[in-house]
């Protein structure tokens, strides 16, 4: 029976043999590839029953056959790797604390560059949980903080700006080998079948603003006053038809897509919701002196309807107004 270290070494070697699959699958897919080595048909027929099934175990959940058109896997050391001058040992990299009580996570993460590299995530006992590759390390770590805060307390990073996919894979392999040599096992997050580190949790959509509570008693409220209050209170307000998850016209969909792409916080109001926003659609048209929906307000100022806002987006005028450096 193979030792834990031998099994782990086989895991690393088999993953390395699939570096060519990365362009089609993505760098992380290499860590959950399922290809088995398949001997030539003549060799299989000549072998006995036991040898015919003597293949390496599957690495993780199925993701399909190799895109290279073959299912043969060679247990070899990856030929392409990052330069030794660039790839520093895992243990030599400083530990960046992300959930230190003295520094909030959003400030701590500023120590990490949003560039290609490899990174290792540790829990509150400084036990390695996951070793990853990313084209934008800081963004990946922010995602881990949001989805797995209980396991993401610290990290080590080796930034490799300009590294190729093969170089990133080589750097990741070196860190994995170092970790396995030190602990005798694969990090929990890199175990076959483990997906929580590579699958984002879907966040619930932010609800629309409702100008009234929808009761009969609220129907007497002055809608113009309510509209003025909401655009004065919130930096970005989109008046649309439908909701942000279910827009009811293509123009509303296009406007939502623009602001979603900016990855900013913004508010939406469904002018078709007559229960909570009675009369808002017609009052808004009068207030803005604009006949169509959607309408966009930024910092209390009316920007325009769909065509104007889309043009502002295309010429680069809109983004600086809402995305702050």
TrEMBL record:
Family to which the UniProt record says this protein belongs: Belongs to the glutaredoxin family. CGFS subfamily.
SUPFAM superfamilies noted in UniProt: Thioredoxin-like (SSF52833)
Keyword terms: Iron, Iron-sulfur, Metal-binding
Gene3D superfamilies reported for this sequence: Glutaredoxin
Domain Glutaredoxin: 236-302
Protein name, entry field: Glutaredoxin domain-containing protein
InterPro entries: Glutaredoxin, GRX_PICOT-like, Monothiol_GRX-rel, Thioredoxin-like_sf
Gene Ontology MF, one: iron-sulfur cluster binding
CDD domains: GRX_PICOT_like
GO CC aspect terms: mitochondrial matrix
PROSITE patterns: GLUTAREDOXIN_2 (PS51354)
